[in-house]
User: Fold this.
Amino acid sequence: MKSVVLPKLIIHGGAGSSLHGKGGVESVRRSLYNIIEPVYSILLAGASASEAVVYGCQLLEDDPRFNAGTGSVLQSDGQIRMSASLMDGTSQSFSGVINVSRVKNPIDLALFLQTSPDRVLSDFGSAELARELQIPSYNGLTDLRLQEWIQERQENFTKAMAGVVAEPELAEASNARRGTIGVVVLDAHGNLATGTSTGGKGFERIGRVSDSAMPAGNYATKYAAVSCTGIGEDIIDECLAPRIVVRVGDGMSLQDAMQRSFAEAQENKRDFGAIALDASGAIAWGKTSDVLLAAYHDGVRLGDTLEIALGTEVGGLI
Assistant:
């Protein structure tokens, strides 16, 4: 039987360029802390790692500031298609949905699929599952995302990606940035879990699949758990999340595993970020992008990565 440990939690709301001044930083910080606090409270009350991950993802999906659930970006045809996955480190069970529409919280479908013999469903299968579960139809479109898409349509979709944070005052800074949300948890029993959810790149070709519904972007074992954000294709090419987790399982410290993986990514000119926890309670994050929108609770205090120096960076707490 595992002894009781101090729960740990880290979340992210994407990665990208600068947050356009202190106002942007403080605004995003408030949003992240407003999610960290209730999620950590249920961990202290005895919630499992997976329960806390799902709750955190729901709250992030419900915040229109972030590119997941409500506030998801639009694809090239003006439709919202979301992807999400959940991985329980104890059972080492991965589940997810790809390009699902008209649901409020894609992470809920990923949770249901944890106990299904078919654990990853694409658009049609996800829609059928939502009907079976009698999940109400939901439109996550916001005015800001619609205006973003209309502007890009007028410019013939010249941007590679939509804005990571949906705020008018951040429009200049959100140019071609990366949006995903993620939650990584170590619960009081020493169990790890991770979840990741996204609205995609924005303006992408119909049918494009995000790393968020793949182990490449969301992976956990009993040793470590990682959620990624950034350019999905770069995350897939590096197989980032399992690369870090496997190195920890092979005996490398979480910090060293992150350092090595991000040094390799920098050599390959990748553009992404990641958050992580290991079974000892070490918290870590890394980025090759300018900014990683992450916040954490180390059991004593809240902290974040919003004002860490530009460029490649790996950090963490033990």
In short: Helices lie at 22-44, 49-62, 106-112, 123-132, 143-154, 232-238, 240-249, 254-267.
